[in-house]
Amino acid sequence: MDSTTLQPLLAFVDIDQLKEHEGVDPVRLEKLKEEIKSDGVLKFAIAVDRNTRTVLDGHHRIRALKLLGCKRIPVVFIDYNSPDVVVKAWREGENVTKEDVLNAALSGRKMPPKTTRHLILASDTFKHIFAVEEEVNVPLESLR
């Protein structure tokens, strides 16, 4: 990743400050919630746009933490305006733009679960944005 362009920044924020652009799958959410509860830690930070606080990846983790009574979450802020960040649709034949993502987040009208797939330029190739989501292993108690 070109750190001069994106400059990812790890921070802890209030979950309610974040703007989600996608819904979640209830079955996947329940499974993840139980996994996090069993582990007692949140393993990875989520990716968020530093300018709008739009969640780019981690919707299920946010919802699971809310269900577990957590108020804070570790995030990696990135600049969504960077050309090194792109968005693709998961489903073939669909098209989604950064503007679509921001409009959904800021309006509160969420897209269906797993509509978007964010990619980030890392080592001259685009990889899933999870590549910048730092492993944090934060105890749940410190997020409540």
Description:
26% of the residues lie in helices and 31% in strands. Helix 2 packs across helix 3. The chain has 144 residues and is an alpha+beta fold. The protein has a single domain, classed as Alpha-Beta Complex (Conserved hypothetical protein from pyrococcus furiosus pfu- 392566-001, ParB domain), CATH 3.90.1530.10. The strands form 3 sheets. It has a 4-stranded mixed sheet. Strands 6-7-8 form a 3-stranded antiparallel sheet, with no helix packed on it. The termini are far apart.
Which key phrases capture this entry?
4-stranded mixed β-sheet, Conserved hypothetical protein from pyrococcus furiosus pfu- 392566-001, ParB domain, 31% strand, 26% helix, disordered N terminus, 3-stranded antiparallel β-sheet, alpha+beta, 144 residues, 4 helices
